[in-house]
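Progress report, Aim 2. The chain analyzed during this reporting quarter is listed below.
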Amino acid sequence: MKQRLKDAIANSKAIQNLADNPLLLTMMAILNRRQELPRDRADLYDQASRVLLYHWDVDHKRLQLPMDAIGRREKQEMLRLVAYEMQAGEEGLKGNLISAQRLTEILTDYLRNQGFSEPREKVNRLIRQLRERNFILCYRGADTYGFVHRTFLEYFCAVEIVYRFEKQRIWSFEQLRDDVFGGHWQDDTWHEVLRLICGMIDAKFAGELIQYLQEQKCNRREFLSEVPWQKGRLEPGGLSNLLLAADCVSEVSNCTAISQISNQLLQSLQKEAEIPEIRLSFACSIEIMERIARCFNGTLLWLKQQAEQSSSSFIQYGAVQAILVHYHHQPDVLVLLKQWTQHGADWGMRVGAIRAIAKDHYYTTPDILDILKERAQKDEDWGVRYAAVEAIGKYYNELPEVFYFICAILQSDPFVRINEWQDNPRKAALESLLTYYPSNPKTFEILRERATKDSDKQLREWAQGQLNMLL
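Predicted structure tokens for the chain:
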């Protein structure tokens, strides 16, 4: 069961999102005892809320609930209403806030409408229970409350929207499309809610919403990078409609029902990556490659082609990273990564491959360290040497010879700064010494030497700052 939970955390971003909170990690462990954690995110969040609202009391705390206790279903319905109210507030989903007065009003009205006696008195106890026993709401000061983890805010908000559309039928599809998706697709804090909605509703409607997102237009001038070495390149916000649409595709369980729309979207994303006239920033290239790998099946061959043939170093790097994350289990991927690390014609391919083979999947493989050392010493590109030195320090610092290798890099690397934004491999080496060998007497000696004698002014100033903190 332990390994099953570890695998679930490693393979699911949704589970990772919950696992960063100790209480929620405990809650998932309880759920994991009964069954394999669901891969569908909406199912995961539903079961997580069930654990907190019922099983946490009955199974973990061994509480005997009274016959007239407010049940798990009622609590979930009330939390949906609270979440929906919060998203309509001034700060919307970003705020995760509701006043104590408004929270009390919502819960009291619900209990009264459900026929509970003395609803106001029950609400006071209920709020305390949701905070102190169920741990799903928390007090945020200034007489306000919020969800203990914003995942629950987003989940309950999405469920309430779907309930109004599918069950109550008080919302038409046009309202769902124009008001919810049309009104919020440009707001990052709403993206998780929109994705969850697409995973909950019928695939036919989800497909139409995805098509709608594809048709939206972004003012690309607003999303051109101002970073000096990327100035004028398109940042991810300029493609936010397509990136969000891809995220929504990944939520639809019946992919066959939306295959035509999904294929059109894939082609649109690939076109953005392939046309030389579209100058993508580093971040945008990575986002596109990641979406293509994660949200669409059968893209490994295309990613390999981009890694080897793209005219953009950023796209090459992004393609290699996407292959690492989503196709590392393929038997020939490590062979490819080694080949690209040593013989890639472009720095983007070599840096991407270096950072890939140094990941947990591969760094214990024989000969990887030798490959990294060779790149750190001999590669003509400063960025490749920097990545190799950084990887050696991070993953192999327990080997005695690595300390002396890093020291040698500080003496021998030929980096000469041309632009302010360049990464000096000697800095990567010095950072490794300070991070992994802080108590070694030679580390302080080398730091003092770099602070006064290094030929790179930027590194001298950085080293002096580090020295001042230690003195």
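The chain has a mean pLDDT of 89. Residues 112 and 119 are 6 Å apart (CA to CA). These observations will guide the mutagenesis work planned for the next reporting period.
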